[in-house]
Design brief:
heterotrimer, A alpha+beta (166), B alpha/beta (122), C alpha+beta (666), A: 166 residues, alpha+beta, OB fold (Dihydrolipoamide Acetyltransferase, E2P), five-stranded mixed β-sheet, 39% strand, globular, disordered C terminus, B: 122 residues, alpha/beta, Rossmann fold, 5 helices, 5 strands, 18% strand
């Protein structure tokens, strides 16, 4: 079965920039529920929630990409629930959900090396419409299992060093 | 819509027969894993056709047919056997126990459906 | 037109083949050991190989099928008395089965080369033929047999599904023209009133004109007119069509088959009583069912929680009563589904005789494998994770534990070493023991090695008990064998054994006695799906502690607490035992309600073979939880083993006491 790339984007804000993810990755948009923190986890892993019976981690993309390292969470904080290629459910914390947008994925601008908060390796490309610029995230790359494990290990090792010296 | 019972101890072969039958327009297919199971299921429901493997544990296909033919419901019901061998011994025994016909394994869906079509249209 | 999804069916075939191979191995090993093969065993063997042959042909594994056919032919001769069981036959057949497995693997991966296949097959055939008095004759029979009756499975005939059967019929009719008479003669015996023409269509009771028109088939027609040339005709047939063989031949085959029928009946008699009809179900389907029940449990507890907030006492109590009823039903449902997941330990044990035989042969040792508790049930989901570690333990025991026959005799032991494996359920746990009567673990050597490799410090060693030292065999990179062998390798593995068993939520214990052998005890939870747990609270957070690890809980008196060194570690002194205390709030970095032990609670739990005392604010209710994995996205957080969905829909974390202590040694 061919992987059908969706041309519809869900756009949202991280800080001042507008980002997009393909709508076929999105399962649900929800407001901040009770999140169970995981001891010892990285700062950008807020914890786990129950998403349709699955234990899904909640990741704050703003913290993950150093856009806002000290966000405030309220009952109005938005979580976008996405399903990765390998069928994991993950909640992404974003600043606000903006709009739906139709794009031609064939005609994206390549992601520039500079000018976005997120490194180009995590991006599918840029989409420009009139004055707007939307950065399209490569969600499977960002949420890659090995990558997440690697990052969480790094950050806890750093924490352990810190706590040992404290 | 004819009801068909498949009796085979191999999950794979049951699935193959069932698939072929479903594709050929016979959605009402029941599976049984050996002669004993087959007999139990055949007693509970009146099937219009039974397709059975011969070589099975607990009760083999031939013994199953013998038992089935004793039941009033199944005196004339077509019973096809699935067989790897197509030799005289098999034929003699098949005939003796009252089976209707045989289908040689391996088969393609088309062949199975043709045989099933014929016995069901009789 | 529909076609079969070969890949899907190959996968199914593989699954079934694995079971069948196991059955065959068991039968042959039994035969090898008793140097005898009874009728039932021979029949079962024949049936197994026959199924392999037939089913593999159905998934286009032609080479495999052809080789299986050769073995089947041999077993058929054994079955019909042409051959008698002789010493060495079982070993040879085991070898044959190995070849079969090898061919299967190669053919599946499309790496089977013709030359290799032909050579392997020829060697096997030659060995098989050595059991018959006149080898040359067998080869001929074998070939004829193959061509005539099993043509379908010979590779080159695959393109033409029915070609050989035509040849077969043609050939016979040509040679014995009078047999044509036989072909149709039988009908008259059955239903003399019917005219010959109709009979040829093969229906007893039906003129069946429709079938005549059904030209695509019409094989009986053709049989009459042109002695069968249609390719399709023999793909299926009717038994009303009779055999083409001469009378005499039929007689003899019938005689044989009558025997077979009798034997089959005997087998049936033995087995029919305890026959439970069964189906194979994909484990994932059961998991799905389990998940659904989990959802039901959650929905139920949400409702219960909601009910508890109701103000109208009458409605509240009515509702509670009904909710209790639902709760009971859910539990029953849960238990039934759980029982579906359970399979007898037999499934695990049966994998061993073959491996033990082969390993013993390789090592030149004599080993008697005994097992008990075959009927004890285990969660099917655990089998996969359990087999590898057990395999390793067994190999290790045979390699390093049990001595060579000569040595055993010299030290006054019986020549044959004993390897015992047992399973039992006790205290809600599955206990598996692997026991050998070998030389025991040389704990001093293991300890020395552990010090040398930096696994432990010398001063630590002096404080360790014998058992603790023996446990060092599970430390990474330890092997005390003088020589590295290809049986149990370089000490890679025992640490893997430990981590695999831990993954299943189990613990391992070692008892060893110099010169008398070693016993490894593995304790596992009965299931991986549901957990009886205790809710505990630390600060604002709640965690779930598995009941199975809890030993006791207490409010300690101040004098029971001892502080060590810089006061960073605290010890609970309980009835002469020193138990390290872990403040859960520190481990999980949570702001606790209580800092003083006297305000909160200490819960003494098992952590592997050790005990630890967990300091928590309080404990709450006891409950059943459906376990959900947590490691899909993360490496395991220290002290956390899994998750569950709570009644209010939030996630609860389950504490894993095994990885609370950050142990560098075992």
């Amino acid at each position: 079965m061919a992987i059908i790339e969706s041309n519809q984007l869900l756009t949202f804000k991280l800080g001042t920039e507008t980002y997009g993810i393909q709508i076929n990755k999105v399962r649900e948009i929800l407001t901040y529920p009770t999140v169970t923190p995981i001891p010892d986890a990285s700062r950008w892993v807020k914890g786990v929630i129950n998403l349709r019976g699955e234990v899904a981690p909640v990741i704050d993309l703003r913290v993950r990409f150093n856009i806002n390292n000290d966000p405030i969470y309220t009952q109005r904080t938005i979580i976008i629930a996405v399903k990765t290629q390998d069928n994991r459910m993950i909640g992404l914390v974003v600043d606000e959900v903006s709009d739906m947008e139709n794009v031609d994925l064939e005609r994206l601008y390549p992601a520039p090396d500079m000018g976005t908060s997120i490194s180009p390796e995590y991006l599918k490309g840029l989409f420009k419409k009139e004055e707007k610029m939307i950065v399209i995230l490569d969600i499977d790359r960002i949420l890659d299992k090995d990558e997440m494990k690697r990052l969480s290990r790094q950050s806890t090792e750093a924490q352990n060093v810190y706590s040992a010296s404290a | 819509m004819p009801k068909i019972l498949i009796v085979d101890d191999s999950n794979m072969l049951r699935d193959m027969v069932k698939y072929a039958l479903n594709e050929g327009g016979y959605p009402e297919v029941t599976e049984a894993v050996d002669g004993v199971d087959g007999l139990a299921k055949a007693t509970a429901t009146a099937f219009d056709l039974i397709v059975t493997d011969i070589n099975m544990p607990n009760m083999n296909g031939f013994d199953l047919i013998v038992e089935l033919r004793k039941l009033p419901t199944y005196v004339k019901t077509p019973i096809l056997t699935l067989t790897t061998e197509k030799n005289d011994e098999m034929k003699a025994k098949g005939k003796a126990v009252g089976a209707t016909g045989w289908i040689v394994k391996p088969f393609v869906p088309e062949q199975l459906l043709k045989a099933v079509g014929i016995v069901l249209s009789r | 037109m529909a076609t079969f999804d070969i890949n899907k069916y190959r996968q199914m075939f593989l699954e079934e083949a694995e079971d069948i191979f196991e059955t065959i191995d068991t039968l042959l090993l039994g035969a090898e050991e008793s140097n005898n093969m009874d009728t039932e065993a021979i029949n079962s063997l024949f049936r197994s190989v026959h199924t392999l042959k037939g089913n593999s042909a159905s998934v286009e594994l032609a080479m495999f099928a052809a080789l299986a056919h050769e073995l089947e032919f041999f077993m058929d001769r054994l079955r019909n008395g042409e051959l008698t069981f002789a010493e060495g036959m079982a070993s040879l057949l085991l070898e044959g089965i190995d070849t079969l497995k090898q061919v299967l693997e190669l053919e599946l991966s499309e790496q089977l080369e013709d030359h290799f296949y032909e050579t392997t097959k020829a060697v096997l055939l030659q060995k098989l033929n050595s059991f018959s008095e006149d080898a040359a004759e067998i080869i001929i029979i074998s070939e004829v047999y193959a061509d005539e009756e099993f043509g379908l499975i010979i590779p080159e005939t695959f393109g033409d599904d029915f070609g050989l059967f035509d040849n077969h019929v043609q050939l016979q009719t040509d040679e014995t023209p009078e047999s044509m008479e036989d072909y149709f003669g039988f009908f008259d015996d059955e239903i003399p009133s019917l005219v010959v023409d109709e009979e040829m269509f093969g229906f007893f009771d039906d003129p069946a004109p429709a079938v005549i028109n059904e030209d695509a088939f019409g094989f009986f027609d053709e049989m009459d007119i042109k002695a069968v040339t249609s390719d399709e005709s023999e793909g299926f047939g009717f038994f009303t069509e009779t055999f083409s063989a001469p009378e005499k031949k039929v007689e003899s085959t019938l005689k044989v088959s009558k025997e077979t029928v009798n034997i089959d009946k005997e087998v049936k008699k033995v087995k029919i009583d305890n026959t439970v009809s069964s189906i194979r179900v994909d484990l994932s389907k059961i998991d799905e069912l389990m998940n659904n029940i989990g959802e039901l449990v959650i929905a139920h507890s949400m409702l219960t929680q909601y009910t508890s907030t109701m103000e109208d006492q009458k409605i509240k109590s009515d509702l509670s009563e009904r909710l209790d009823l639902i709760d009971r039903h859910i539990r029953e449902l849960q238990e039934s589904v759980m029982s579906v997941r359970m399979v007898p330990m037999e499934t695990v044990f049966s994998k061993f005789p073959r491996v033990i035989r082969d390993t013993a042969k390789k090592l030149g040792k004599k080993i008697d494998f005994r097992h008990s508790g075959e009927s004890v049930e285990i969660d099917k989901a655990m089998i996969e994770g359990l087999t590898d570690p057990l395999m390793h333990i067994v190999r290790n025991a045979m390699d390093h534990g049990i001595e060579s026959s000569e040595h055993r005799l010299k030290i006054g032991k019986s020549e044959t070493g004993i390897l015992m494996m047992s399973a039992e359920q006790a205290n809600g746990q599955m206990i598996i023991k692997i026991q050998d009567d070998g030389s025991g673990i040389n704990v001093e050597r293991v300890t020395a090695k552990a010090i040398e490799n930096g696994v432990i410090e010398e001063h630590q060693a002096t404080q360790m008990s014998k058992e603790e030292k023996a446990m060092l065999i599970f430390a990474p990179g330890l092997s005390t064998a003088q020589e590295v062998t290809d049986i149990s390798g370089r000490g890679v593995g025992m640490d893997v054994v430990m981590s695999n068993i831990k993954k299943l939520g189990g613990i391992v214990k070692v008892e060893t006695e110099d010169g008398y052998g070693t016993t490894l005890t593995i304790a596992l939870p009965l299931t991986l799906a549901i957990l009886d747990g205790l809710n505990i609270r630390v600060g604002e957070e709640q965690f779930i502690l598995p009941l199975s690890v809890i030993i006791e809980s207490l409010n300690p008196e101040p004098e029971m607490i001892k502080q060590i060194g810089d006061k960073s570690s605290e010890i609970l002194m309980l009835r002469n035992e020193f138990i390290p205390i872990i403040r859960l709030h520190e481990l999980f970095r949570i702001e606790p309600k209580y800092q003083e032990f006297s305000d909160g609670l200490l819960i003494v739990v098992r952590s592997g073979s050790d005990k630890i005392a967990l300091f928590v604010d309080e404990f709450m209710n006891q409950q059943q939880f459906v376990i959900k994995p947590l490691d899909k996205n993360f490496r395991n957080a220290r002290g956390i083993g899994g998750a569950t969905v709570r009644g209010d829909g939030t996630i609860g974390l389950i504490i894993d006491t095994m990885n609370i202590l950050d142990r560098t040694t075992y």
